[in-house]
Amino acid sequence: xxxxxxIAVRHLLARKRQSxxxxxxxxxxxxxxxxxxxxxxxxxxxxxxxxxxxxPHITIEDEYRNPRxxxxxxxxxxGAIEIRRVKPLTETRGIRNYEAILSRIRQIDGLMASPVLxxxxxxxxxxxxVGITLNGMLPDEIHNVSTIENxxxxxxxxxxxxxxxxxxxxxxxxxxxxxxxxxxxNIATTTGATRVFKIxxxxxxxxxxxxxxxxxxxLKRVQALLNRPNRINSIIIKLPDPNQxxxxxxxIEREISYKTVxxxxxxxxxxxxxxxxxxxxxxxxxxxxxxxxxxxxxxxxTVVMEKQKDISILKSMGFHADDIKRIFLIQGVILGxxxxxxxxxxxxxxxxGLMQVQLKPPGSTGQxxxxxxxxxxxxxxxxxxxxxxxxxxxxxxxxxxxxxxxxDILRGS
Length: 413
Prior knowledge:
The chain is of the alpha+beta class. Helices cover about 55% and strands about 20% of the residues. The protein has 16 helices and twelve strands. The protein has a six-stranded mixed beta barrel.
C-alpha cells in the first residue's frame, strides 16, 4: 500500500497546477458549505428557540376543537337529521373549574403549568389612548412557563407579588407614553371598568409589536377588570422535552376536552417552510462540491491518458488491475482529505467572521448578530460529502486505467 500511495502522490505532483486547482475547488466547497450551512442551521435553531422557549410548549384554550354534539343527534345517531340556527346560550366565557384541571395535568412528570387570562384594554396617559393586551397571571408561577423574566430591564415580575396593583409593561409602550418605572397609568377595559396601576417593571424582548402591546398584571386584578371571576381563558404549559409536546397535548385534550394546541401544531406552516428551505440550501451548497469533483475527474482522467505507458509497465511488472485502480482512487482520497484538512479551518474562519456581522432587521429595536450553529454534525457531513465526491470522481478514470492492456500499449509504442 505504501508503494501505491507513493505512485499516486508522484502522479499528482507531476501536474501541480491542475492538482492545485482541483484541490482549491474542494477547499472552497467545504468552506462555503460550512459557512452557509451554519448560517441556515443557526437561523433555524434561533427560530425554533424563539418558538419553543419564548412561547408555551402547549396551550389549553377555552374552546372545543369540534362543536358540541346536539341531543337530537345523540338520540338518533343514524337518522337523517338537519339542525339549523343553533345558538349557544350566553355565558361567561372561560375554562371552568381550572384549578381541578391544573391539578390533573400537573401529575405528568416534569410538566409545569400556569393559568392565564388575556383580554383587550386601553391605556390612557396624557390624552393618548393605546390598545394593549392584558395578561393576567400568577407572578410566582409565570417564570416556570415563560421567559419574560429574562427580558426585564427594570424591576421584576415578582414585584407584583408584593404589590398586586402594579403592572409590568414593554419598553416600546413606555417610550410611546413617556413613562418609566414608578409612574402610574390608567387602564380601561371593554367592560367599562377602569383602574390606575403603578409601573413596577419594564421588559424589552426586541420585538417591537410585542413590547408595544403586551402588559402583565396579577390574575385576580385582570379577572376583576374583565368581569370574569374565577375564570381563565388559557393554561400555558412547559415540558422538559419540547419534542414531546404533540403527543402530550393530544393526551390532555382527550382527558379534559378543551382544545389543546402544541407548538408544533401552531407553527406547522413555519416548520414546513424551514424544511423546504433546508432542502434548497443543501442542494445549492452541494452543487459547489459537485463542481469541484469534476475538477478531480478531469485531473485524474488526464493522468490516466498521459500515463498509459507507465500503467502498462506496472502491469508487466506484476501489478494487478485492482492495484492500478487503487492508485487512482488514492489520488481522489488524497485530494478529498487535503481539501477537508484545509477547507474546514477556512470554513471556521468564515464562520467566525460572520459572527461579527450585526444587522438591524425592520421592526427590531436593536442590532442582532447572525445566529450560527457550531454543531459537529455539519462538519462530519461536509467532510463526508467532499471525500465521497472526490472518490466517485476518481473511480471512473481509475476503472478505465485498470482496463489498460499492456500488450496493446507496448506494441503501439
